[in-house]
Each structure stands twice: as C-alpha cells, then as structure tokens.
Automatic annotation (TrEMBL):
Coiled-coil stretches: none
Alphabetical list of Pfam families matching this protein: Lipase_GDSL (PF00657)
Keywords for the protein's UniProt record, in alphabetical order: Hydrolase, Lipid degradation, Lipid metabolism
Family: Belongs to the 'GDSL' lipolytic enzyme family.
InterPro entries to which the protein is assigned, alphabetical: GDSL, GDSL_Est/Lipase, SGNH_hydro_sf
GO biological process: lipid catabolic process
Top-rank taxon: Eukaryota
Molecular function terms from GO: hydrolase activity, acting on ester bonds
Listed name of the protein: GDSL esterase/lipase
Organism this protein belongs to: Miscanthus lutarioriparius
C-alpha cells in the first residue's frame, strides 16, 4: 500500500478505516469439548485453573494483535464479543433431555471471556495514542433474543434451518440437507451459525443503537465518524 499510495496517504487511509473483529467462539468451543472429555480426571479447582489459563492466553494474544495493528497505523477497532455459545444447535445436542436446553457452562465460559475483553480494551484505550473502539455486546443481544424470540420475528431459536437429525444439528448444511420453509423465522441457519436475519439485526443494533444498550463506549456509527 505504501509503495502504491505513499506513506502519508496509506497512514491516513489506515487511521480512518474500521477494523472489525468477531473471534473467540471456536477457541471456547474446542476448549469446552476437551474439558468435557477430561472432567472425570480433574477437580473443580483444576478446571478453574484451566479456564483462567485459557482466558490469559486468549487475552494476551488478542492484546498483542491489536497492539501490533495499532503500531502499523490502525486506530479504529470494532469488536463483537462472544454470544450465547451454549445455545447454538451444536451445543444443545450435548444437553440432557429431549428439548435441547442451552448449556449454562458454555455460556458462562463465554461471559467470562467477554468480561475480560471489556477490561482489555479499556486498558488499551488508556495507553495507545489515538486508539478508538466500540465493543459490541453480542452476548447481551443474544440473551434478549432468546428471552423474547417473537420480538425479533423468530418462531424457532433452537433448531438449525439447514442440516439434519435432532435439532437439525446432527448433520452439516450440505446440498442434500433438509432446509426449513422460512429461514427468517429461525435464529440459526446451520448447526453453528446465525441466519441472515440474525446477522442483519446484529448489524443494525451494533451500528446505530443507543450506546450502552449493545455497544460501549460508542456505537459503530460513531466510531466511523470519530475524528482522530
């Protein structure tokens, strides 16, 4: 970029660009799966230490990456935290009973990382010159959606629209998969991903809703127009 545009133009472009992050779900899901298979061999204290080590590792890597991007000229960061991971169809398959309830342990794991993320970005903002960010609360938005699905136009927040088997989550969304009749009424498209309507609602809430509702300290729109 610097070779083509010149250093000054490149720095201006980078400083006015918004860098969007939405990561962490896979790390937590893989960790929880490994923990579940080793529970019989670990005490509660050992499990808590493992969780603390996981958070420390993820936050350390996250912070180092953001700091490196800042050193390269990035200034505006939009971050989406981890949602109700225990409520995705793939996770519900592991719950007891036929209803496929959410996994509270997995949701608590996500909530703990989200708290650590909020603290981390607050710290980065205090020590990196010109650093601006908006942290979107996908966890809170997910919780509100599951508490009142009808308000978001959903009739099903448990099953995958595209897949197969129990909860539509025992098979991946492939060309021969079963597809629901109205995807906009399902919170989940496949066994792990939200539907298109869910992505749209998240975008609307994170971009232009009142700061403090699902974004902090500012929303994505305010981040875009922030002057540095």
């Amino acid at each position: 970029m610097a070779t083509k545009l010149g250093s000054r133009a490149t720095n201006l472009l980078l400083s006015n660009s918004v860098f969007l992050f939405s990561i962490g779900s896979n790390d937590l899901f893989v960790f929880a799966t490994a923990q579940a298979s080793a529970l019989q061999n670990k005490s509660a204290a050992d499990q808590q230490r493992d969780v603390a080590k996981l958070y420390a590792s993820l936050i350390s890597n996250y912070s180092a990456t953001i700091t490196e991007l800042h050193a390269m000229g990035a200034r505006k960061f939009a971050i989406i935290n981890v949602g109700l991971l225990g409520c995705i169809p793939a996770a519900r398959l592991s719950s007891d009973g036929a209803t496929g309830a959410c996994l509270d342990g997995l949701n608590k794991l996500a909530s703990g990382l989200d708290d650590a993320l909020a603290s981390m970005f607050g710290s980065l903002a205090s020590r990196l010159p010109g650093f601006a960010y908006s942290l979107a609360d996908y966890y809170g938005l997910s919780a509100a959606t599951f508490d009142d699905p009808g308000a978001s136009g959903y009739t099903d927040v448990a099953d995958a629209c595209c897949g197969g088997g129990r909860l539509g989550a025992e098979a991946d969304c492939l060309p021969n998969a079963t597809v629901c009749s109205n995807r906009d009424q399902h919170a989940f498209w496949d066994r792990v991903h939200p539907c298109q309507r869910g992505a749209m609602l998240a975008a609307q809430n994170f971009y232009d809703s009142r700061p403090g509702r699902y974004t902090a300290p500012i929303n994505f729109k305010q981040l875009v127009y922030t002057s540095l």
